[in-house]
Design goal:
Blueprint lengths: L10 H12 L3 E6 L18 E7 L8 H11 L1 H5 L4 E7 L22
Length: about 110
């Protein structure tokens, strides 16, 4: 007898976990699963497989993009194991010393300030 599969995650569960683990200053979790119907990993439920996370945390200060993404993935590992197939992450540095909070800026890029 095999155990019942865990239900697919919901945006509210991801939000709660990120709040618990990273204490974000800003957080938006969007379930984009319905837009991926018919794609690999989409599943038949229409939810719980493709998410977009936009997050700003004090702990991101001084970190490069890869390190920030690792924190988010680590916090959400359980949900990846439950069927979350794709996770788009936009991390934002809201640290007071940050010159600009741009997710597209290269991490650890040299400053042009003189």
């Amino acid at each position: 007898m095999t155990p019942a599969a865990a239900p697919l995650p919901r945006a509210s569960e991801l939000s709660a976990r990120l709040i618990e683990r990273l204490a974000p200053l800003e957080l938006e979790v969007i379930d984009e699963s319905a837009a991926h119907a018919g794609h690999a990993g989409a599943g038949e439920a229409g939810y719980g497989t493709h998410f977009r996370v936009r997050i700003a945390c004090e702990c991101f200060a001084g970190m490069g993009r890869l390190a920030r993404h690792r924190l988010v993935y680590d916090a959400l590992r359980e949900f990846l194991d439950r069927g979350l197939h794709a996770l788009a992450i936009e991390t934002i540095d809201r640290h007071p010393d940050a010159a600009q909070a741009s997710p597209s800026a290269a991490p650890d890029a040299p400053s042009n300030a003189s």
